[in-house]
Sequence to fold (686 residues):
Amino acid sequence: METMTHPKNQKPKRYTRLLILAILLLFSVIAIFVLAVLIYAKILGPPPLAVPQSTLYYSDNGTLIGESDNGQKRYWVPLKDISQNSINSTLSIEDKNFYYHHGFDFKRMAGAILTDAIARKKVQGASTITQQYARNLFLTMDKTWTRKISEAFYTIRLEMNYSKNQILEGYLNTINYGHGAYGIQAASQLYFGKDASNLTLGEAAMLAGIPKGPSIYSPLDSYEKAKKRQVTVLHSMFVNGFITKKEALAAAQQKITIKGQFPVSKERFAPYFQDVVKQELKTKLGLDERTIALGGLKVYTTLDINQQKIAENVVKDTISNQSAIQLGFVAMDPSTGNVTALIGGRNYQASPYNRAVQALRQPGSTIKPMLYYAALNNGFTPVTMMKSAPTTFHFDNGKAEYTPHNFNNEYADGDITLAQALALSDNIYAVKTNLFLGPDTLVKTAKQFGITTKMKAVPSLALGTSGVHVLDMVHAYSLLANGGKEIEPTFIRKVVDSKGKVLYESEPEKKQILNKDNAFVMTQMMTGIFDKRLNGYGTVTGASIVGQTTRPYAGKSGSTNTDSWMIGFAPQLTAGVWTGYDNGGEITLTADKLYAKKIWVSFMEKALQDKPIQMFNPPKGVIGLPIDLASGKLAAPECSKSSRLMYFVKGTQPTETCSSIKTTGKDGKHTNKKTKSWLNKLFHWF
Fold:
């Protein structure tokens, strides 16, 4: 007898098969979806990890002097420079299974869901370090499904394309620790005043507890709550096997000192200098504003902190608070071109206008060393004689005339040497020289010395009537100080990007551009402003400060109605000062006229007080001879009341002694029987 299956018994089997098929289909769809997501994530490749990072500025000895940020101070450090205490405490409290999952800790997620269900509120988080890192990098803190899905996708991309150590490093450098400190290094500096590599277990545990609620667990807001949270972190480290119970207790009892200050104050150090550095980053490296401000650059500058402090203190102590006088100041190492100190004004907050590099001011007689260097190249020597007397110069085919004046309208009314003309700053001698050479010669020579501003080829250019920058003038004098080698004013030694790649490194060229023999002769003549033996119808221009000098200097002062200058150098340091009013007003007060010289000599003496005294060593092509200052001839005992060692390019030195050109007249006085030199004849028509 055949058994018959009732149709009703087939329905459960059919439903079972359909259910299995549905489940398989669902899993297939899920698998396909997951596979598609993974493939898409792989196609997209690694997500960019660039985050705003503070750009840091360092002095020449590596001291941090400034930074730029957008309110989030972040100093990126590699994982190897983060203490193991910090790594372990963060892993323990945030994601103990970090190295064993692929971005999602499903067991922890299930536990958190169960805990939240029992408590009927969200009491436990389950985000992994990778998820948090994805959120910090790419997302807002909005609690929406869209954000959660995006977070999951970025988590997958991070895990697929970066190693665990890279992810952990990124997380520790981006997490918010409160008070504008983003990242472990910034937090370490803010709270404890130290690097992340030096954190103790107690300090690391306290920091690890902050990210859960920076406004709650910051020790600056509530040390008590921060301490309780620290104990929680230490307990988790003990439970998770990172430390022993003894270590946990010792760390909990450790006395912790909270600093509460970032390494760089809100008021930048040497702000005018740093402004120039930022401009150099734009012009020399071609970096944009955002990269400069938030690119995580490390900019190593040439600033000498000690010299900068000396300069700032000298300016503060010298210029009266009641004076409206402004200044520009630059100091430079003449052997390298490194700018070691710079001041662009008396108060950066009141006026960020940088008078050291932006202001165009008349240099006055500080232009004369360039004029007389050109003269040396054209047959002049330190004893070339010309007459100092009131003179009206006619030029432009007689269509124009120019009548310069000496200071206080004092003149020798006779012949003086080039060396004395420079020491006394004789204007008549300077204009005669300029016209003899042709004003175009001074224009070309100034350009050779590194003057970047345009100059008018007119007779008065010899007296500094075309505007210049302080930086250019200090650069020009540094060429004389180093024997005529070209050096570019340098503010940046090296720039390193956030990944440690060197973007720029200065390589100063030392091309010989001046005649080294004439450069030395010029330098030696410039020491004359401090030598009272060169006094004549007036006193040498450095007489008021020579009593404060303790070593050899070469220099030149300069003044116009609206500008006061002093620039000079020792072999190892050049400095220049300009003082005046921003509105171009006339300087009338005697005290205001003396500021430039006082600031210069005080700075030089203090900046070099611990340095060896160096002499200006003559090159082989020059010869030093004692010169009778009255005649400009070789000194001889019978006629030299005053003599001075002067240097000449070999072959141009005088050969006659002062006694060979003098004889006693009927009145018993010495008279000069020699005819005037060819050069004096040439200028006789003036």
Summary: Residues 622-683 form one domain. The first strand starts at residue 55 and ends at 58. Residues 424 and 540 are 5 Å apart (CA to CA).
